[in-house]
């Protein structure tokens, strides 16, 4: 008789992988709803991004709009958007590590 003990371990591993995949699908849905916020210029420009790293909202206070200095407003928008997207990336990484146990699995997000 052959020893089939290795098959039991393989089945256990496959169940763990399947659960991880299910958890990731669930997390992807949850991350669509979670948002992060970043501001620039002391809060005159605000950017909000979701866990899919999509920009959801930009708010610009009237005092940030100076027709003689459009470049400054552009810089503030870029700073707020880039920070919001960075925060979204960090949120995704943190949430994913809860599922993967800190393993870096390429191509998940």
Automatic annotation (TrEMBL):
Any GO CC annotation of this UniProt entry: cytosol
Annotated localization: Cytoplasm, Nucleoid
Coiled-coil parts of chain: 10-37
Keyword Metal-binding appears in the UniProt entry: no
Any one GO molecular-function label of the UniProt entry: DNA binding
Coiled coil as UniProt keyword: yes
UniProt xrefs under InterPro entries: YbaB-like_sf, YbaB/EbfC
UniProt signal peptide: none
Keywords: Coiled coil, Cytoplasm, DNA-binding
First-listed, main subcellular location of the protein, grouped into a coarse class: cytoplasm
Subunit relationships: Homodimer.
Family indicated by similarity: Belongs to the YbaB/EbfC family.
General function of this protein: Binds to DNA and alters its conformation. May be involved in regulation of gene expression, nucleoid organization and DNA protection.
Protein name: Nucleoid-associated protein LZ11_01691
Organism: Thermosediminibacter litoriperuensis
Lineage: Bacteria, Bacillati, Bacillota, Clostridia, Thermosediminibacterales
């Amino acid at each position: 008789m052959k020893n089939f003990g290795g098959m039991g371990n393989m089945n256990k591993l496959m169940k763990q992988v399947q659960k991880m995949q299910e958890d990731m699908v669930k997390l992807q849905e949850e991350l669509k709803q979670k948002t992060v916020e970043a501001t620039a210029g002391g809060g005159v420009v605000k950017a909000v991004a979701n866990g899919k790293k999509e920009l959801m909202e930009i708010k610009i206070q009237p005092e940030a709009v100076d027709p003689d200095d459009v470049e400054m407003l552009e810089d503030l928008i870029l700073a707020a958007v880039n920070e919001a997207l960075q925060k979204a990336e960090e949120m995704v990484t943190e949430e994913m590590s809860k599922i993967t146990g800190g393993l870096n699995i390429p191509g998940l997000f």
